Amino acid sequence: MKKILIVEDDPHLSRLYKAELETEGYTITLAEDGRKALEQVAAEMPDLVVMDIRMPEMDGLTAMVEILQKHRKVPVILNTAYSCYMDDFLAWAADGYVIKSSDVEPLKTKIREVLSSREGTPA
Amino acid sequence: MPSDTNASPNAFAGMSIEHHLTELTILYGVSRALQRTLSQRKALQTILVGVTAGPGLAFNRGFVLLVDDKEKALRGRLAVGPESPEAASVIWNELQSKHRSLGELLDSLEESEIGVDVSVNRIVSQINIPLEYPEHPLIRVMRSHETALARQGVLEPHGLAVDSQTSQLLGAPEFAVAPLFLAHRDLGLLIADNAITRKPIATPHLRLLQIFAQEASAAIENTLLYRELLEQVALHEQANEELRSNQERLLRAERLSTMGKMAALLAHEIRTPLVSIGGFARRLLRSCPPEDPRREEMMIIVSEVARLERLVMEVLGYTKLAKPACAASDVNALIGSVVGTMQDEIGRSRVSIKLDLASDLRAVNLDEAQVRQALMNLVNNALDAMPQGGTLTITTRMDDSYLEIGVHDTGAGILKEHWSRLFTPFFTTKASGTGLGLVIVSQVVDNHQGSLRFESTPGKGTSFYLRFPSGTAGGSSDPPAGGRQGAGGV
Which of A34, B206, B223, B374 registers the highest number of CB atoms within 10 A of its CB? Predict the structure, then answer.
């Protein structure tokens, strides 16, 4: 069962994503800011991280860059209400960029895409 | 009108006090009349009437030539005089029968323009001597600041041969040439002759003509200065007007930018709770058995949230419009792709679409994403304007300075009372609309230094025209200043 870490400061949204993704059969853990996400990635080694960008303590882009530097094999999907970060060159390093929507389908599709492409590459 | 004082070559010395008085009166009358006018044409007429009128210098004909600074030429400007002895006798008899004094004659100029003597003015209008030919005898006389008398083809005292063109044009055995000048500036020439009576020109009259020319020079200079002053005033007014309109544009841009920032902030704040509400509503809806009566109400929540999310997207799209990132673009292809992506909306409506695209479009520097957004907004508006169906036509055309995209609908048209608010943020006539669609269109056009124009006829439809500077794609040509104008003044 694939482990996904959801980094999201809004408790309602993290509850929604957890519920939706558990229905898809993933194991979900939650972190509420970038700094906690770094600790949890190190401790849990998830198969994928879904990362919000605007968060207190440490923003999602900074956290993502640290994760990619330390744990190169962990893919990160940025999931944000802002489209402006798409132009940020840091965001190009992400494995996916999803604009938050009440329709969670695009996020689920992106997760499936990233995980299946990772399965194809040797660990 | 012909004065017999012309008869004797040295009449000046022998002239009676009466004659001197007459001459002084003429000078006084003309100079007073000249002081009253700032119109160059009136001044020239007064000068020429003074030169030719019976009670004045009594030359048969007078011509004024002025330096045209723009054309860099000495050009004939105005002439007075009869064309033939027959015409002359008619005029002179008429004047005598009216017993008009010089003062009366000059006053009548104040009230209305005297009739233009066609034939002499045809002559004067043919005189056009480029200043770059300083050897031309008339130019040399002007530069010399000394009055000359042309007799037997020679201008004395300069000793210059009269050129054949001038002597042919004037056709008089003798003519006097008095330079019009001020200390710092050559203004032109005053030419006078007795082509009709063929009387010789006496030295005293030559001197008087010279004095007269000095008086005339001051008057002409005044009219020139006045004209320059008017031009300066007009320039200043224009500059002021531009300043005012630029200031308004700046203010508007600043207002929009502040509103944009606030809107972006709000939109983002709203977006997160919307995702929760809609996301959970979708979950509940999925978990509801098909026969559950609450399904319909949940569906309402889901679809209303989706609608709000679209509005938020639109607001964010608007606030994202910053400096355009331009690249050479094929506008016809862009229109094709906009129509392609909007196939769903177009298909759902009862509107047929027609593309009337110019085949010779060159690539133009555009931010395709922005122009695409503007076109989508216009197409959306057009579809909304034709709920009963109709035709949506998109046109393109191009000339040397701009490329124009037209979006035309056959809908209800825009009410005239809405015209002035059409581009105001959050103004909308639609049941569901952000009131940002046209603001975005206008912003996109402004970003490209283009212009936006619309025409609307109630019951017939509306056309929007977007003009973008065509320049050279990839070049850094300076695009013309943009502006928005409505058919009725927006």
Answer: B374
